Amino acid sequence: MNIQELLHSFPCTCGREHRCDIQRVEIGHGAVSALTALCRDAKTVLVISDENTFAAAGAQTMAALEGKEILSVTYSGETLLVPNEAAVAAMEPYLGRADALVAIGAGVMQDLGKYGASMAKIPCHVVATAPSMDGYASTGAAMIMGGMKVTYPVSVPTSILADTAVLQNAPMELIRAGYGDIVGKFSALNDWKLSHLVKGEYFCQKVYDLMDDALQKTLSLAQGLVRRDAEAVEALMEALVVAGIAMAFAGSSRPASGSEHHLSHFFENIGILQKEPYFPHGIDVAYSTVITAQIRRQLLAAPFPRRAVPFDRADWEANMARIYTTSAPGYIALQDKVGHYATDRMDAYLGKEEAIRSVLAEVPAPEEIDQMLRAVGLEMEEFYELYSEEKLHDARLYAKDLKDRYSVLWMYWDLLR
């Protein structure tokens, strides 16, 4: 796939003009050397990394920036870095002095890089160290602010540079996470179709097909990824970048994020709030895709009820307080603003039941997705061992409240709770 060919604007039959403002994507041997030309006009460059990501690609990055004044922020590699106020504060004093920012890393580091560069209105270049998630090319930075998971709108990075040799040597857990994040698109794409059908949300078949094509190609990579095969790792990284481009084209994260991501964010949020362990983002997404497939199966198994279960606000608020503790007021305010609880969706469900069932049935069965994950060494047993049945029950009912977006979790709440 020639990703560079996607980096332009074009009118679409959906009625919108799609665009992605990334200037350059390089995935392959020696890709980081492109920084020399990309930062030609920058006198001072802020480089952010943690100790592990700097060890993986710091030498190549510094060689490419030879002759520049380097400002450096290196976070600890011993503890899990949280993209919160403290992490932002560590780089903030340098933002006003830098002409460009280079973020060395993957999920959290590229979020911090895009967030900081957007604050300072300077170019952001991402040196990828793992094919672990699909946010590299996205217009969102997933942060934890005030204890809440918030995705801030940011500019896409100016460039994404990924040396295949670095990606191959990433921890296998992160390679599995990237594969799992792409498998999660079964759920995300289905939620997009579902919301289009139930709520009339904007939908683009061309963007849907772009993401679906990358998903289908990724499924054939499993054995190569287990072997750390260069071509397989490079193809996975391409699929992850395409996911970000698809989000830019759609103007939202719809092509790549749905109920499976809401569940993943739930486990991360609760882990941070309760100081409990949780999986890396992509692995949680992968396992959560099985859970959302189970939910779709439940919805397909019985006729839709003639009316929704009545909403008990007092009970909902009590559960929100129990689960989200200090963050609960923020999420309650979000849902009050969005108005999902004040909206009656039963006419749409009953009037379009046949079409809705047809859409729900497009997702592979839970057992099929389970086998896709096992192909790279992800086993659902470890998911059930880490997360209690009570936590899974809460996730099915209350993960939806983390976001303003409609997904199959809302249909589950409306019809099956």
Brief digest:
With 417 residues, the chain is an alpha/beta fold. The protein contains 20 helices and ten strands.
Task: Describe the 3D structure.
This protein has two domains: 3-170, Rossmann fold (3-Layer(aba) Sandwich), CATH 3.40.50; 175-201 and 254-416, Dehydroquinate synthase-like, alpha domain (Up-down Bundle), CATH 1.20.1090. It has helices at residues 35-38, 51-64, 85-95, 107-120, 164-168, 172-183, 185-199, 205-218, 222-226, 230-250, 259-274, 281-300, 313-324, 328-338, 346-351, 353-360, 366-374, 380-386, 389-398, 408-416; strands spanning 10-11, 17-18, 24-27, 44-50, 69-75, 100-105, 124-128, 140-145, 148-153, 159-162. Strands 3-10-7-6-4-5 form a six-stranded parallel β-sheet. A two-stranded antiparallel ribbon has the order 1-2. Strands 8-9 form a two-stranded antiparallel sheet. It has 20 helices and ten strands. It is of the alpha/beta class and 417 residues long. Helix 4 links the parallel strand 6 and strand 7 (124-128).
